[in-house]
């Protein structure tokens, strides 16, 4: 066996030496007769080697192979890195880390319009503001949110923890603190954007379809405004509603518009209430003109009334808190909001809807049941929702029974029935309106009617 091992090794050594010129050989091949313990296939014929010699041959093959694998890995890594640059921003904080903790809000993809259809309507959070003691309102709010698949975060106050109690019920300071508390939460938690709804808010069953078009309109208004100033908005947005806004006033009960600006008009919108059913204190007068009755408008606002529904950015919440810190807490919060929207130099940028997208729900019975801050003395009434055609709350029992369609509140609203599953909002477009006049209801005035007067 040893002789065979010696002969095999000698033959292989001879063959290997014949492959190289004599000038490149440092020493002649030496055959050593040692028992073999391993077999290696070299050149297809020489199979028997000593272990040490096998290790040498393995190294000859392994080192170049390892180098090739290393180079191939780095080439592939470099190509992948070019396609995913955000992963390699060493030492930087991503905006989504600093101002966004909700994975439902995608801050990376260039077009976020479809985020308006998620459970937070394209915002990072949706807050419901109210008093924890009013469990009836909380229950109704949770029910209404479920029908449009909306997730709510409650930011309530207790009646006995709010200053200025009146027979166990807070005065308007309760509303002040309820709103400031949620604004502080937005700032403290660095919430990128949030929709704030009061606990008597109501909305159309087609809310998500409406907000999809509102997002298009909000972007178009911001883009047109920047183009007039010779600036362009950055192509990658962090919000489906654009980035050049501080507040979206979607639930006012009175709103004013800036003059000589582009409006985003949505003609033939079936969710627009008939003119005779509108209850807002003030609004752009042209919205009531012939041919405009079924048109919804989005525009830059100079102020408004009511805080039933509005959205703010992180920066917008900070600006509001700064404004509120200089005002007495016995004034309605919408006074501060209106003053900010009317500020010059675009310090506080407001985009609004008329008619509003968020209305006020009034339950059946005494009007005093609907307010936590005042006694109106009004007579009892039937349940209804102001300014909302296909009211989610009015249709609550119908929706709970599994019906796919909702009925209009009024006989003069057309169509009388709508299917939210198949409804799509009409597409809008920009129109230029010069110095729009404001129409004020004769029986109301801004000085005596605020969001906290109901």
TrEMBL record:
Keywords (A to Z) from UniProt: Glycosyltransferase, Membrane, Transferase, Transmembrane, Transmembrane helix
GO terms of molecular function: transferase activity
InterPro entries noted in UniProt: Collagen_mod_GT25
The organism's place on the tree of life at top rank: Eukaryota
Region annotation (Disordered) ranges: 418-454
Transmembrane residue ranges: 60-80
Keyword Glycoprotein: no
Biased composition (Polar residues): 445-454
Similarity field: Belongs to the glycosyltransferase 25 family.
Protein name: LPS glycosyltransferase
């Amino acid at each position: 066996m040893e002789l065979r091992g010696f002969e095999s090794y000698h033959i292989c050594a001879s063959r290997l030496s014949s492959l190289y010129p004599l000038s490149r050989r440092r020493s002649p091949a030496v055959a050593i007769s040692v028992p073999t313990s391993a077999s290696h296939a070299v050149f297809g014929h020489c199979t028997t080697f000593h272990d040490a010699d096998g290790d040498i041959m393995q190294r000859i093959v392994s080192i170049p192979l390892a180098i090739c694998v290393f180079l191939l890995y780095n080439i592939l890594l470099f190509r992948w890195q070019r396609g995913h640059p955000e992963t390699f921003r060493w030492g930087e904080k991503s905006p989504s880390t600093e101002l966004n903790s909700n994975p439902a809000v995608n801050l990376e993809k260039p077009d976020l319009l479809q985020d308006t259809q998620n459970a937070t309507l394209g915002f990072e959070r949706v807050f419901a503001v109210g008093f924890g003691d009013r469990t009836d309102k909380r229950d109704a709010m949770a029910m209404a949110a479920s029908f449009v698949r909306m997730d709510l975060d409650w930011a309530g106050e207790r009646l006995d923890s709010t200053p200025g109690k009146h027979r166990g019920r807070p005065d308007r300071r309760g509303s002040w603190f309820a709103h400031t508390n949620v604004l502080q939460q937005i700032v403290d938690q660095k919430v990128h954007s949030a929709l704030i709804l009061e606990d008597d808010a109501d909305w159309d069953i087609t809310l998500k379809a409406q907000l999809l078009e509102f997002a298009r309109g909000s972007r178009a208004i911001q883009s047109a405004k920047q183009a007039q100033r010779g600036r362009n908005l950055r192509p990658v947005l962090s919000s489906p509603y654009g980035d050049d806004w501080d507040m979206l006033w979607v639930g006012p009960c009175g709103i004013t518009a800036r003059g000589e600006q582009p409006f985003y008009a949505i003609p033939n919108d079936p969710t627009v209430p008939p003119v005779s059913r509108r209850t807002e204190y003030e609004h752009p007068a042209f919205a009531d003109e012939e041919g405009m009755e079924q048109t919804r408008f989005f525009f830059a606002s100079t102020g408004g009334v009511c805080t039933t529904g509005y959205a703010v950015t992180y920066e917008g919440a900070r600006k509001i808190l700064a404004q509120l810190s200089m005002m007495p807490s016995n004034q309605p919060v919408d006074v501060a909001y209106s003053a900010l929207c009317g500020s010059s130099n675009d310090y506080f940028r407001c985009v609004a809807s008329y008619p509003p997208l968020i209305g006020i729900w009034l339950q059946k019975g005494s009007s005093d049941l609907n307010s936590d801050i005042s006694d109106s003395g009004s007579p009892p009434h039937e349940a209804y929702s102001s300014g909302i055609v296909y009211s989610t709350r009015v249709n609550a029992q119908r929706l709970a029974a599994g019906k796919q369609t909702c009925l209009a509140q009024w006989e003069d609203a057309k169509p009388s029935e709508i299917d939210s599953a198949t409804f799509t909002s009409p597409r809008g477009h920009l129109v230029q309106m010069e110095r729009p006049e404001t129409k004020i209801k004769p029986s109301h005035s801004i000085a005596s009617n605020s969001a906290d007067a109901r």
